[in-house]
Amino acid sequence: MNSRVLLTIAAAFVLTGCRSDALRPSEATPVSQNLIHAPSLHRGAASAIATITRDSGGPPTSTRWLIYLDGQVIARIGKAETFTVNAPVGQHILGVEPDAKIKVLQVINTDQVFNAGHHYYFRVMYTGSEYRIQRTMPSGDTR
User: How many Cβ atoms sit within 10 Å of the Cβ of residue 109?
Assistant: First the structure.
């Protein structure tokens, strides 16, 4: 084989490893309680439940990702981890970005309306070109 073919095969393996693979929340490891920074999110009659799960794949780094609710960090999540919080009812913005010392990427946001008594599931992923947080089904399948 010539070096061009070997280089192409090696590049394909590297790029394939960068894409995320979806997980069900039940397959993921719970985020350590000391990495959940959501003291203001308390259970109440007017609250919803949000379960956020990070995919098992992604860029070859051990960097945790910051999860935001309305601009405030609510958790630092690692690969194949999940956490559940009580979310206030109403229109909110969820965001994600790598927890890097040098901020080179912008926070990726998504709008979400939380209704009282409902349970919402979100997938945090890397598409091969961008970070993303999006609503999913309890099975981990994207809508």
Answer: 15
